[in-house]
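User: Can you predict the 3D structure for this chain?
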Amino acid sequence: MSTNDEIQYNKGLEGVIAAESRICKIDGEKGSLYYLGYPIDRLVQVADYEEVTYLLLNGELPTEKQLQDFRRRMREGRPLKKPILDMIRSFPADSHPMELLQSVISYLSGYVDHKIHHSMYCNCRDTLHQVSQIAGVIAALHRFRSGLDYVPPRDDLSHGANFLYMLHGEEPDQDEGEIMDKCFVLHAEHSFNASTFTARVVASTQSTCYSSISAAMGALYGSLHGGANERVIEMVEEIGTPDRVEEYVRTKLERKEKVMGMGHRVYRAKDPRAVLMEEFLEQLSEKNGDDRYLRILKGVERTFRDIMEEKGKPIYPNVDFFSGAVYRLLGIPSALFTPIFAAARAAGWLSHILEQRELEQRLFRPRALYTGDVDREIRPISERG
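Assistant: Here is the predicted structure, written as structure tokens:
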């Protein structure tokens, strides 16, 4: 909290309540997360990504008939039109995939009948391209850059299984498909983080959902928001073997450097998503007969916790700590980790965009605390040396 001329403000809007929302609740002290009141650990067991997307967009879990119709519309929206594929193929080869996603989501808006209607029946809930096609865009980009052909989507696979199918060109087994789909569920929503707030700010101007999501992707691309799981994998590779964990962690802390994937701005307990991601990693490690990632990460967690508890500062893993290793064991390259985050979070972004329109209908217009000069003299250009 800072003051200037008796004005109080919070840098970075830390702790400031900017709007009401019924979408997501985070209990940082207990390490709990809820989507529309449903605990994430239960939701991920009983609902797939398409069902969770319905929940986020409509506020309630669907009936069997509603889910059947919603699945059909989600899956009918998966195929990418030729101009979109041409754009993906011709996008600069040295660009980051997040730059493509931010561009392609705007391009997609030209291929749907999209109009803003400020009501609970806004057709953002009907077009669904903003959610259903992003995973396919990521898969197509990877294949084109690998010199491979586009794999059209299948309508008999879950959202996660279809992504792996489009990425690898072969159907994943049941366990892998389910784990990928559950990863999408875990990343679908997380309240007023930087990218979600960005989406709501743009939505508050009465802009389109595509523009709002494009802006959110720009925020997610930033190194302080997305990409932590990619850097966790880099840390694991740097450590190399489990016997080097303690030396690595102690050296990092002595140098006051960050240990990637440890700690969260909100949680004061272990991130509930990290608990579930750890279970997925254990399952895949046993299935693949490769527990190197698991052993190194568990070693980092244990060593870091022991050291920090001695200092009276318990810090726990966040969702990024285990997710990158899960993706690696699913055959996904590191460059796609943040785009996968975006593909999953699109449902949450769209949910917040709709809520912003329906409940707030108020333009975000914060003030800045001016700290510059006033009444400066303007000298003729000939006298400016």
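The chain has two domains: 19-222+335-360, 228-329. The chain has a mean pLDDT of 91.
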